[in-house]
Amino acid sequence: MRVAKVIGTVVMTEKVECLKGRRFLLVQPTDCRGRETGAPVVAIDTISAAPGQTVFIVEKREAAKAFGAEQLPSDVTILGIVDQIGSVS
Question: pTM of the predicted model, to two decimals?
């Protein structure tokens, strides 16, 4: 799992059948302090995240497994909204 910030939405006029009805967001991966790490990526939104929110994302095989037996072709999936990141003493 990684942390990312939602920076925009993605609109597609054509999708493969299994992706119809799914929402896509542009996310910027970050470290735990909110600093950008790497390039922005498109992610399937499973939780109705909004621009500006910090989210948990999973990538690669785990991104597709998030949908169970549905077998969606996903490289990045948003699984949760981060309320707070604290430090461990």
Answer: 0.85
pLDDT band (50, 70, 90) for residue 69? low
Question: How far, in Å, CA of 39 to CA of 65, rounded?
Answer: 23
| Domain around 42 | 1-52
Q: What is the CATH number of the domain that holds 3?
A: 2.40.50.220
Taking residue 67's Cβ as centre, other Cβ atoms within 10 Å add up to 16
Phi and psi of 2, rounded to 5°? Answer: -135, 165
**Which tens digit of pLDDT belongs to each residue from 26-62?**
999 999 888 999 999 999 999 999 999 999 999 988 7
